[in-house]
Fold these 2 entries.
Entry 1:
Amino acid sequence: MRAMRRLAALLLLALALALPGRLAKAEARACGAPEEELAAAPLPGASAAIARGTLRIMVVGSASTAGGGTSGPEAVWPARMQAVLAARLAPVAVEARVFGARGTTAADHAGLLAAEAPRFRPHLVIWQLGTVEAARGLPPEEMSDTVQEAAAQLRAGRGDRTDLLLMDMQFSRFFRANANVEAYRDQLRFAAAASGAQLFSRWAIMHHWAETGRLDLERATRAERQTVVNELHDCLARALVAFILEGIQREGRIR
Amino acid sequence: MPGTVASLVRPGRDLRVDFLRGLALWFIFIDHTPGNLLGLLTLRNVAFCDATEGFVLLAGYASGVAYGRMLERTGWLHAAARVTGRAFTLYVAHIFLFVAFTAQVGYSAALLDQAAYLDELALDPFGQEPYRALLEALLLRYQPAFLDILPLYIVVLLLFAFALPLLARPRLLLAGSVTLYVAARWAGLEPPSWRSTGWFFNPFAWQLLFAIGAVLARAEPGGLARRFRWSKWLAVLAALGLAGVAMLLNAVWHGAARGWEPPEWLAAWLADVDKAGLHPARLASILVLTWLIAHLLPAGARFLQGRLAAPFVLMGQQSLAVFCAGIFLSFLGRLALEASAAPPAQLLVNLVGLASLVLVGVVSAWYSGDSARRREPGPASADLPAGQGTSRP
């Protein structure tokens, strides 16, 4: 029985590692997101989970995790990510749970992580933050301290079994013009590097889409807006999946 | 045009100070128009400190020169009244800029017409509590993004009005200033803010840079040069240090995407170098830079009297007008870059921006020079030692 389970685990891992050929098509899959933004470092927690057949993903964040102007709950990026990832990793079971709400700050998220992570035991935490801090002008260093403390606590409780992925703000010309976004982005880079986490730069990817005209929410007419928001969330999910798969693959190569 | 600009430059002062101040004002304009490609070339990309540190230090220097003399001639009460008057002028300018900023954000938001999106950004406390927001802005307890330098300057000037008599006792002035800095950094002393977001620049910490500038201005140049003697080895060390910091910062910011993982302790330390409380690393960075420039750029350098430097020297001499105009112009620059950030728009924003700043400097110099002559007929400022008579903070 045990031998069979081990065999199944090996098969699953082999399946996950057989992705390189498919990854070559990242361009199409991730809606043309820039390659350098999808370059992930190894993800040991998620890889080990896939080998065991169940991947639990915990998403914490503010408004964009909880609706964000999409047509419905199934169109929001965490739900799309779960669907795309499950399809890509089948037969691995992918469970994603969202703990987010509009207007929540990094401190709120840290509280959620402390309370829910021990119960949910995620293998991958995707922490979307920075928007509310930058919009309200909250101290950037405090945000970074909060992340570092929460990451340390997560590591103390879960060790290498949980990978942490930070996600920064949505790109917006209006936001860039009227809030000091760069200070917060710099600080998020520091925070990720200081807490052994990785940064998935939604800002840089959306900036690229906006500049190339691929997906530009702020230039969409009122009639198109719903469609564009849905597509944006879908594309973000696909870029995120490409990032996660790359992290899993690189972990496999190290082994 | 350059000829006109050069003719408006007030001669006889330390042109280095004016030139660097003008440069800092230009950098501040650039850093206040996010999306501006020139923003990649300013100091903040390669050093702990940025143009703000330079601006405050040199404001302290200019204030030390101008009010120090005034203090000797007319006494504390009069000089303090002048400093306070200056602070009030800055306050009025700040409120004007606040109104302009609010109008600009409101206009952009209306143009964008994306309720759900804006709601998340919550950039508009005016929409939620207009009367409260106005009151908090008047009390300087609410400062929108990019409108944070003037409140700092105002509070620092008011502190300076009290500290004026200590200009004659630089050690005491610095001791008091360091004490306040320590209280701000380690005891959390800070002016109150709405929604307890804290001030973007804590004036109780930043006053130290201003005080250092004022003390440097009052020091006898020869003594200063002896105390901070030039040493080739020290200079090489300083330059290496600055270059090292530039590399470290960029490695941690951009290394992860290129497969280099910085050590966690290093990133954690860099994350703690805060701007609000003028982290000692930022302070050291600007002071080292100042020492290097003071020695490497001689006061009589020919280039400072040249055509290329003249616009910046002029801007530095007319700093208040140019600063306020720069903040105002940055609103317009933002609107333009919001509409398009393509190369033609970049070129337009930067050319028009810089030309307008220089123009403001020209008009201000022409106007104030004119009024000064009317006020002081005959051999103007004959009683003032050369080079300091017309310095203004």
Entry 2:
Amino acid sequence: MTELKNELIRHSAADLAAKLAAREVTAVEVTQAHLDRIADVDGQVNAFLHVNSEEALAVAAEVDAARAAGGSAAEELHALAGVPIAVKDLIVTIGQPTTAGSKILEGWHSPYDATVVKKLRAAKMPILGKTNLDEFAMGSSTEHSAYGPTRNPWDLDRIPGGSGGGSAAAVAAFEAPLALGTDTGGSIRQPGAVTGTVGVKPTYGAVSRYGAIAMASSLDQIGPVSRTVLDSALLQEVIGGHDPFDSTSLTDPFNNLVAAARVGNVAGMKIGIVKELHGEGYQAGVENRFNESLQLLKDAGAEIVEVSCPNLKYALGAYYLIMPSEVSSNLAKFDGVRFGMRVLPKDGPMTIERVMGATRAAGFGDEVKRRIILGTYALSAGYYDAYYGSAQKVRTLIQRDFDAAFAKADVLISPTAPTTAFKLGEKLDDPLAMYLNDVATIPANLAGIPGLSLPGGLADEDGLPVGIQLLAPARQDARLYRVGAVLESILEEKWGGPMLAQAPVLGSATTTAGGSN
Amino acid sequence: MAAINRDDVAHLARLAHIEMSAEELDRMAVELAVIVDSVKSVSEAAGEDVPATSHPIPLTNVFREDVVGHTFTAEQALSGAPDAFENRFKVPAILDEG
């Protein structure tokens, strides 16, 4: 049984779906195997803030019953019915706590489900639990979680990226085949890069944000986390689509993603190297793996062109004005009145204002406070035009740069992050150094375009995962899946299997079965 | 552009309703000065003629029918509140009247 379970957790979501449909395994077996894995390794990884065993097994049992009943009950099952998934704890769920990684929401239960969660329930995908994150998704290392950092399955002394380090680590550690993330400046893609997994930020508006606790509303996007490109395509098709509960939700259909992941060639496609998104400031091992992927795509028949987006040099600055400005407004609702923690001032008059001040002082961590203050500053009278106004103009310039680049190339390519995973604690006292991790991912959020990160190999100098990022024009998410799936398949052929097969063995039960696949 | 100083941070913290200790203000002032300095160049990036983008994918006139849709019951809305009384959120004094 142990061996069987170890085998089950290593399958992709697509393979699990096929096995479930063929009735080779039951959804309860698959779900239990992942719950066992969580019990076995999450003490080391700390990817989960809450494990939802009972409900997950009940949903799995419903799927098994429908399949056993046959007829219309079985036919109506979604292709991913019974394939379990983890949900980033920024996304609200009925029946499980939602903390956003913050003390201010400790123990809070949402009275409603996010739209993406409703869609998971409709597809009968068992929700394994809620994953760890930097507080309110603010960070690049998951060290800003009020519930302790998540650890990178490749090296437990290193960061799993952030803010969605929990979702990426859960998938990398085979605790879940799929997870949901949110990406405001790279929080899906950068964790994907440093954990050797796949993460996609869809076009802004392609997936409803209703029920994702807002950080920066004009930048936030929910998206898939997985171990294969095809699995992300399958998941984006489950969670995507127009939602009247999100007024920024697009009405365009995004139903060609799985088909795109199965096209299998890039012959004749133009792939653009963004001059400003590699080279200086990027680790040598990252640069080497990036160049290797370029050569492989060229060998596969793609045409590599160089493009320049000169205004990207302002992207980080514009992001650190727009994002905190929106943060300062969005987080005003955590006031000790409607939800979460309330802290009373120790002395002096007991007014609501003083209660707010004491509650927010005790409930928010340092990074959240820094960003609220920074945003309040950028929006204050006298600075608004110079800061927030200028940053919004930069956003226009960056969009124009991307428009020009996409006139020359079908997709753009870059490393996802400038370095591999750094050590826990290494950048915690230097906010600016931490912010630089997202230098290659932020531009997509500012422009609203989709981006995908996939494993590109291990850096020579430290043996840690390197991510390759693909970018496409708004609404052309399908191109990411087409090119991503081809690059993934060429790389896996070169490696002789998935990159995660090279990751160290975790937990107790795996010590005998490790390396068996 | 003026650098951010400790008094600015104290004022901003009051505006944002976050109590801060003297030690926190000292530290935050230093950290924010570094961050503000690094984003300054943004103000020189674009000329007067460049329009601002507030939203990455422009959408206009997103309307719905003016009918009652999804609403929470009072019980649901109050379920996560720190304090409630007779179907209302309960708060300490709104005005500082002693």
